[in-house]
């Protein structure tokens, strides 16, 4: 288990301005002090309640937001969120949307074309692939989005509680695909508020609460500590309220 | 990701947007032709039929030379100004260089303009204004105008998230500029004393240059064109730096 650390966060904090303006007002800290490592090939669970700053944290890992405090070291790996239906245009057919989504996620046109058959097969769309996405059912759209996202192969995949889209059959299939991803040698960061999910799928975990790292280490210990605290919620509502959904 | 990938993204995103736009209407791509023709018809009705501003009958080619290139400029700026705001959902899911969004709009509008420009040239030839040697200057003028559009659109798109009120100012500013750019009148009618100020407006300088080439068979004023090109390149470079600096601020301030 001599895994290399490929991403390191040290005391990372992210501040949001309260108002869009060139003037500097009092910012809001969505993350205050978060530190942990992501190691090559592992599945790392990030656990925390709603408003703990999990989504903001994923955006920092994906390079969308820059830490305002602390440092993020990424040794040159491509990190991307598993985004469903990224950039979909409802008036275009499934093929164009798969292409657009794939290119947005970093594939070349040739790469998407080479994966078309697999995408269509996985999404179970058949001839519907040539119809406008606007005519799809929500389930069909979700399946196409998932199939494309699965084919985009970043070095580190970030997953934000998206297990299970579509009907029951497809949910099982997508959950299996994600599990396959997780069991493979791919580096995955999985975010959830559910301790069971994290415990089932991850080797190590980080617990974030009140925008600060509370614990990190083997998944059993971290999930255990999180459950204990869940039994007696911290703060008695003394926190400054939920941060804005980003 | 390598730079070539962003070029591919720019091209495909533009293609997809154009296709999606076209599929929203019954006449789809025909609107690329109909819409500008309607736009020009409005001015034709007002100035030629109502005000009898026609004179020798050459007012229509004169007007169209100004209007087509004006519409390229005006349409791109209006559409490009708020493009970061309209793409904020995308921006929050995947990192992309933000300058890509206005670039898509510019390419989109340039493709539409190309159709109009070809129609205009066809119209001018039918009207008796045949191509001359000075047509060699036309690609240069088109390129310089593209640079100007890029500079203006990039700056507006870059600033709009910080100053949402900019939209109202620009909308009215563009209307003012429409009347100050010599679309309905010739630059010759401007008193000599005011001419240097008049040509500070880059669109006035360009429209005058287009008319020299397309209608008068004369070379354009290269000093004017050169200044517009120089200013635009400086503007593009500045906007590029600005975008780079605020790259990861935009997803935070756009709500």
What does this structure look like?
The complex is a heterodimer of chains A (about 250) and B (about 260). Chain A has about 250 residues and is α/β, with parallel strands linked by helices. Chain A has helices spanning about 55-60, 95-105, 110-125, 140-150, 170-185, 195-200, 220-230; strands at about 5-15, 30-40, 45, 70-75, 80, 155-160, 185-190, 205-210, 210-220. A 6-stranded mixed β-sheet of chain A has the order 5-6-7-3-8-9, sandwiched between helices. In chain A, strand 8 (about 205-210) and strand 9 (about 210-220) form a beta hairpin. In chain A, helix 2 (about 95-105) crosses helix 3 and helix 6 (about 195-200) runs antiparallel to helix 7. The model of chain A is unreliable at about 235-245 (pLDDT under 50). Chain B starts with a helix and ends with a helix. Chain B has about 260 residues and is mainly alpha-helical. In chain B, about 35% of the residues are buried. Chain B has helices at about 5-25, 30-50, 60-80, 85, 90, 100-125, 140-160, 165-180, 195-200, 200-215, 220-245, 250-255. The interface between A and B is medium-sized, with 33 and 29 residues.
């Amino acid at each position: 288990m001599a895994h290399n650390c490929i991403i390191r966060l040290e005391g990372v904090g992210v501040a949001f301005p309260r108002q869009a303006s060139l003037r500097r007002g009092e910012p809001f800290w969505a993350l205050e002090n978060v530190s942990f490592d992501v190691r090559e090939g592992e599945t790392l669970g990030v656990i925390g309640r709603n408003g703990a700053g999990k989504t903001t944290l994923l955006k920092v890992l994906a390079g969308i937001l820059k830490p305002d405090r602390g440092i993020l070291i990424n040794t040159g790996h491509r990190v991307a969120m598993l985004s469903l239906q990224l950039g979909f245009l409802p008036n275009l057919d499934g093929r164009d949307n798969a292409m657009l989504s794939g290119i947005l996620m970093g594939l070349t046109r040739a790469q998407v074309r080479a994966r078309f058959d697999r995408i269509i097969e996985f999404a179970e769309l058949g001839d519907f692939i040539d119809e406008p996405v606007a005519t799809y059912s929500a389930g069909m759209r979700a399946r196409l989005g998932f199939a494309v996202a699965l084919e985009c192969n970043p070095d580190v995949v970030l997953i934000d509680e998206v297990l299970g889209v579509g009907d029951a059959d497809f949910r099982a299939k997508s959950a299996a695909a994600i599990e396959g991803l997780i069991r493979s040698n791919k580096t995955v960061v999985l975010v959830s508020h559910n301790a069971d999910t994290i415990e089932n799928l991850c080797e190590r975990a980080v617990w974030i609460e009140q925008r600060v790292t509370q614990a990190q280490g083997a998944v059993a210990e971290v999930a255990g500590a999180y459950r204990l605290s869940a039994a007696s919620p911290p703060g008695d509502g003394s926190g400054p309220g939920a941060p804005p959904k980003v | 990701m390598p730079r070539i990938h962003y070029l591919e993204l720019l091209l495909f995103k533009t293609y997809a947007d154009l296709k999606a736009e076209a599929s929203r209407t019954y006449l789809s791509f025909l609107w690329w032709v109909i819409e500008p023709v309607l736009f020009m018809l409005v001015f034709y009705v007002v100035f030629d039929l109502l005000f009898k501003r026609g004179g020798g009958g050459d007012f229509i080619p004169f007007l169209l030379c100004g209007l087509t290139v004006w519409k390229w400029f005006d349409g791109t700026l209006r559409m490009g100004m708020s493009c970061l705001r309209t793409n904020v959902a995308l921006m929050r899911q995947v990192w992309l260089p933000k300058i890509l969004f206005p670039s898509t709009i510019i390419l989109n509008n340039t493709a539409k303009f190309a159709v109009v420009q070809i129609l205009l040239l066809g119209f001018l030839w039918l009207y008796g204004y045949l191509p001359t040697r000075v047509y060699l200057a036309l690609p240069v003028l088109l390129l310089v105008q593209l640079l100007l559009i890029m500079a203006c659109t990039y700056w507006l798109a870059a600033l709009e998230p910080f100053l949402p009120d900019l939209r109202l100012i620009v909308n009215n500013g563009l209307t003012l500029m429409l009347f100050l750019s010599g679309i309905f009148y010739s630059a010759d009618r401007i008193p000599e004393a005011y001419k240097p100020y008049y040509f500070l407006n880059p669109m006035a300088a360009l429209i005058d240059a287009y008319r020299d080439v397309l209608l008068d068979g004369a070379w354009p004023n290269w000093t004017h064109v050169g200044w517009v090109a120089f200013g635009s390149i400086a503007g593009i470079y500045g906007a590029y730096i600005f975008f780079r600096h605020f790259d990861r601020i935009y997803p935070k301030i756009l709500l």
